[in-house]
Design brief:
The protein has 104 residues and is an alpha+beta fold. It has one domain. The chain has 3 helices and 3 strands. The N and C termini lie far apart (71 Å).
């Protein structure tokens, strides 16, 4: 005679090959996420090269522009500076602030 608890979970038991396939699927998703994050970090590093010394780094939240989107997205990092003529320049750095900028 089985208990009520055993009967409740009997229908939820999955075969081992199914569980292994699920684990592999989640591992692939995690791997893709990690590689995308590393790619975004490298993009931020590349975009932060060749900034003038007088650049100011700001963290901004941006409206995406979609009519039905009420959320702000970010944070995204931007560099602002003025050239010799006093003209303001803005450059997108990326989603991540590179360590080389953090330490300055």
């Amino acid at each position: 005679m089985s208990s009520l608890g055993d009967d409740l979970f009997a229908s939820r038991k999955k075969p081992l090959p199914y569980l292994i396939a699920e684990i592999k699927k989640h591992q692939e998703k995690a791997s893709k996420f990690i590689s995308k994050t590393e790619s975004n970090k490298q993009t931020s590093i590349n975009n932060s090269k060749d900034l003038p010394n007088n650049a100011t780094i700001r963290r901004e939240y941006i409206d995406c522009g979609k009519l039905d989107c009420q959320w702000v997205h970010g944070p995204y990092y931007y560099a602002y500076w003025k050239d010799e003529d006093g003209k303001l320049h803005k450059k997108y750095i990326g989603k991540y602030l590179p360590a080389s900028i953090k330490n300055e």
